[in-house]
Specification:
With 422 residues, the chain is mainly α. It is built from 17 helices and no strands. The chain folds into 2 domains: 1-197, MFS general substrate transporter like domains (Growth Hormone, Chain: A, Up-down Bundle); 213-422, MFS general substrate transporter like domains (Growth Hormone, Chain: A, Up-down Bundle), CATH 1.20.1250. The radius of gyration is 21 Å and the shape is globular.
Amino acid sequence: MSKTSRSPWAWIPSLYFAEGLPYIAIMTISVIMYKRMGISNAEIAFYTGWLNLPWVIKPLWSPFVDLLSTKRWWIVSMQLLLGAGFAGVAFMLPTSFFFQTTLAFFWLMAFSSATHDIAADGFYILALSSQNQALFVGIRSTFYRIATIAGQGLLVMLAGCLEKHCDSVPMAWSLTFYIAAALFLAVALYHSKVLPHPDTDCFTEHLTGKNILKNFVHEFTTFFRKPQAKVALLFMLLYRFPEAQLAKICNLFLIDTVEQGGLGLTTEEVGLVQGTVGIIGLTLGGILGGIAASKGGLRRWLWPMVWAISLPDLVYVYLSYALPDSLYLIGGCIFIEQFGYGFGFTAYMLYLIYYARGEHSTAHYAICTAFMALGMMLPGMMAGWLQELLGYQHFFWWVMLCCGVTFLVTSRLHIDPEFGKK
């Protein structure tokens, strides 16, 4: 098989696994790791919340990924940088100044991962025919989810197991990140050999910095001139306002002792109930949401999805009062919350596609995802401080109160009733 016609099965699963794992490591695994290393909830939420920034601003440098080299080169280069970032975190964890230095490496990984996302998604379009793009869209999503389970589930469970055998939390997490580094370096080497060389993935010599800037300004201004632009912007920023806060605190709640108001789970148990059972619920909810929306359209399913993303948050109110010690009960509650989130998140993603339609749809969708990341970043940064101020019980009630914001911004939308139907 030639380099330009290599089977998509040889590289799409591994490429989107490599896209998902760093994001999970930066956004979720870091939170659990810092909690086990003794960092306060407020500091964890604030500093890891800032790590969303590269995904917020990635549209600013995405045109230069086209200008400076091929997508293939960017993919392999960013994977090598990500492997180095994992190794840097691992190397610094046993030191007394681990917090500052590991955050610096997470910043390197965040910018590398955001750039990798740009290149990988662009390469997917260039390397596949339109028929194969449609055929493999489910495959890429599946392997992104598998990466989520591997990171938030298996890697966290591995760290928990090593904590017991090493009798040292820093050494256990250091070994875990060394394993992740080795995995990523192997993936980079693999992709340097198996990624095809499509003729369209080439240097774009006709582009200049001036043209890129002019096109970017035009795309950005037309984005804000679309109908219902203000309402759309508020929806993108605030639909997940409750979930943005809950996502930063839920793992901390699972780890904190009963005396501190938490459930006192071990690292392995968190990896199982949140990183495995929870992700399975999230995936199933997303699949069901997609099926439902394709049959009835976004407008028909919008409000059921709003209820689905909001009401299950009550399970954390229950858990904070009951403080159960049954792993089955805890896992069941998390499954319900994540299933509802997956189902309700479908409406959000479909609306981004709906708003981005028309001229410059690719650029406009990229801007939508930037606002999506910003909507998670800002509430997440304040969540730790707020939780420490209110305590877990009152914080989870606050999250439920914030669901009113989700209902409010949704009520202002006007959606074509035919959008999303088969």
